[in-house]
Amino acid sequence: MTHWQSGMILTPARLGEQESGQVEVSFTDLTSHTQVVTFDAPFAAAPHVSTQIVSGSGAAARWESRPISISATQFTLFVYRGDGSASPSTWSDVPVQWIAVL
């Protein structure tokens, strides 16, 4: 249960709804990469987060994504080779979408 205070700004996160977004991911010669994503407004508790690589071609074709280290204010996006290959890749502004739901 949320304890409301006078003057509190009501946001979707505070109302127990959701927040979503997209980050552009870039790196050079890696087999995995992490990037911190901060929510616009803190949630009351750590939300459930899902991620999705928007591009399925080129350098991102055999990669997967997932959220790690989820808190009320942020999560870490983890992208990694999903095919078991140790061959590094380079990404340039590959879009990854996310949604957080409390």
Describe the structure.
It is elongated and about 55 Å long. The two termini are 12 Å apart. It has a single domain, classed as Immunoglobulin-like (Sandwich). 16% of the residues are buried. A 3-stranded antiparallel β-sheet has the order 1-6-3, with no helix packed on it. A 3-stranded antiparallel β-sheet has the order 2-5-4, with no helix packed on it. The model has no long low-confidence stretch (mean pLDDT 88). The chain has 102 residues and is mainly beta. The protein contains no helices and 6 strands.
Structural key phrases:
102 residues; 3-stranded antiparallel beta sheet; mainly beta; Immunoglobulin-like
Which SSEs are present, and which pair or pack?
Blueprint lengths: L17 E13 L1 E7 L9 E6 L9 E6 L5 E8 L7 E13 L1
Antiparallel strand pairs: 1-6, 2-5, 3-6, 4-5
Concise account of the structure shown:
The chain has strands at 18-30, 32-38, 48-53, 63-68, 74-81, 89-101.
The CA-CA distance between the termini, in Å, is: 12 Å
**Helix-strand string:** EEEEEE
What is CATH's topology name? Immunoglobulin-like
CATH class annotation: Mainly Beta
Q: What is the count of distinct domains?
A: 1
Mean pLDDT: 88
What is the helix tally?
0
Q: Unreliable stretches, pLDDT < 50, 5 or more residues?
A: none
State the major sheet. 3 strands, antiparallel
Content-based structural category: mainly beta
What's the architecture, going by CATH? Sandwich
Rg (C-alpha, Å): 16 Å
Overall body shape: elongated
Q: Which bin fits the share of residues in helices?
A: under 10%
Number of strands: 6
Strand content: over 45%
> How would you write the strand order of the largest sheet?
1-6-3
